[in-house]
Amino acid sequence: MDLIAPMRKIIFFLMLCASTAQAACEMQPTTIVGKTLIGSFETKRLKSDAIKFSPETGDITGKNAVFDFDTLYEMDSGKSSARFRVGEAFLIDGVSYVGNVEWESGKAPKKTGTYEFYALKTEPVKNAKTLTMVGDSITWWSYGRYFRCLLAPELPGVQFVGPHTDVVGYGHAGEGGNNTQQVIDRLDKIKPSDYYFVLAGTNDWNFWAAQKTIENLKEIAKALNEKGGQVIISTLLPRLDEHDAHNEEVNRLLLAWNGEGCDCKVIDLGSEFRKLPNSQSYFWDNAVHPNFEGYQKITEILGTDIRKTFNQVAQ
């Protein structure tokens, strides 16, 4: 079940107030190797986390989208310019917006007006070891867009890679609303990596029993192993609704399996997160998505185990 679409308008206004989270994460450096003009649009409002376009711009979202969630963009008025990434694009009352915006300088341009917008072709700075994070919206959407930036200090010298790029420039392989079968169906898009971190299964409750989720996770782990990397599999975070029992059963079965038969390591994020005092306060949507403080706690829980894994390779 795709949980994202019904909440877009709500998220847009919530994310306008995400300055604390933004201040904690700086956009990753990258090399610009080319750019393509995508259009000239009038801006009516430039905020730290959003751009509002004029009604005359028309619909540049949905099927008409000119902005995606993976590309670095540049806007140039002829007098000033700025670079940014986006995590949302939608229409409200006939007006186009992009939200979850991250600015390369950390600040939005001061003056509204007409800008030429370019899509930039980039090459990431390369490090020795690579990590691909595989999962659903928890891997990248909402405050998950800061997941990798919070985890990166625990993994110096590690490059986050994947078919997608988050708003601060880290690669990943998360897609919103995915169940584990949908992850399996797109594994061919995931390139070989030294390590894979898998957090998937919270969307499976609507399709099959927990045992089927485990079978799918084993299939995902096997396929990723065959690409040449070690797989780190996380137990699921709690849900704050009636479907949490499914996650608990998946976690019980996942821990019982414990990666036997593959080059896998199982990390029990779920149990540790449930032990946190007032753990429910670390979700913003009363369902499945952690808030920024929630991702900070997730990083604290995961950091030690993942760091040990990478340090063993570095030695």
TrEMBL record:
Keywords: Hydrolase, Signal. CDD domains: SGNH_hydrolase (cd00229). GO terms for molecular function: hydrolase activity. The keyword Flavoprotein does not apply. The keyword tRNA processing does not apply. Residues 134-296 form the SGNH hydrolase-type esterase domain. InterPro entries: Ester_Hydrolysis_Enzymes, SGNH_hydro, SGNH_hydro_sf. Residues 1-23 form the signal peptide. PANTHER family: SGNH HYDROLASE-TYPE ESTERASE DOMAIN-CONTAINING PROTEIN (PTHR30383:SF5), THIOESTERASE 1/PROTEASE 1/LYSOPHOSPHOLIPASE L1 (PTHR30383). This is SGNH/GDSL hydrolase family protein.
